[in-house]
């Protein structure tokens, strides 16, 4: 992937435009695209019968009308649940960011069902401009390794696993697990990778990454503590992907530090903040 010298900040819609729409629903991704996001982020897990589904938590309890552990439920059962109702009553706000009232109606019934990665890939291939997909593999112990293998196989079926150059890849793969990132590099060497960081391990403080990672992925809390981290990573040739940036001060900090990819729940508000200043 390009080093820090490349381009400006790219806005990545975290779980879709999830400040306005229930996370990981088709409605959230449609809105992110409508709001001009450069990229979209999603988390993937395996259902009991081996389908890649876009769900953040280990269980479906928080984000659906049902209960249970994703990896113990078959696709058909996961698909019976409503993934939008829990968000309907929430105020449309993200910390500190002014969100515009939306002209679009609240989640469409058929846009709030279970989202599979296959459906999300279909949505992204049907639009007229490139929107990069940042896929994060969650790793239930029982499926460690399999989720990455299934993901690469699915991308291969869609012609996305072997871009001629990493810089041109329509997909970026990410994990907090260095082992998972390593497996991704092994299975699909041309797909760029982000090593997500929720703390700066002593070995990573100098901005270095293992050879199988291309982009540094610190949480924004780490940049508040150690703003120099971005330039140390850049000196080593790494761009930075920062999550999850939903606060005016965070957006300004990321822009001033030269963060390349900015993951936010509110892409439109973030974009206007980046453009205005
Ligand atoms: O984009 C990375 C970020 O999503 C990691 O945290 O918990 O939201 O998956 P989480
Ligand atoms: Ca994630």
TrEMBL record:
SUPFAM superfamilies from the UniProt entry: PLC-like phosphodiesterases (SSF51695)
Coiled coil: none
Source organism, top-level taxon: Bacteria
Gene3D superfamilies assigned to the protein according to its UniProt record, in alphabetical order: Phosphatidylinositol (PI) phosphodiesterase
Gene Ontology MF: a single term: phosphoric diester hydrolase activity
PROSITE patterns recorded: GP_PDE
Name this polypeptide is given: Putative glycerophosphoryl diester phosphodiesterase
GO biological process, one term: lipid metabolic process
Extent of the signal sequence: none
Domain GP-PDE: from-to ranges: 9-274
InterPro entries, per database record: GP_PDE_dom, PLC-like_Pdiesterase_TIM-brl
